Amino acid sequence: MKKHVLITGGAGFIGSHVVRLFVNKYPDYQIFNLDALTYAGNLRNLEDIEEAPNYHFIKADIRDAAAMLRVMEENAIDAVIHLAAESHVDRSISDPMAFVETNVIGTVNLLNAAKTYWRDAMEGKLFYHVSTDEVYGSLEDGSFFLETTPYDPQSPYSASKASSDHFVRAYRNTYHLPVVITNCSNNYGPNQFPEKLIPLMINNIIHKKPLPVYGKGENIRDWLYVVDHARAIDVVFHHGKEGETYNIGGFNEWKNIDIVNLICSILDKKLKRAEGESKLLITYVTDRAGHDHRYAIDAKKIMTELGWEPSLQFEEGIDKTIDWYLENEEWMLGVTSGEYQKYYSEHYK
Ligand code: NAD
Ligand code: TYD
Question: Is the pTM of this model over 0.85?
Answer without folding.
Answer: yes
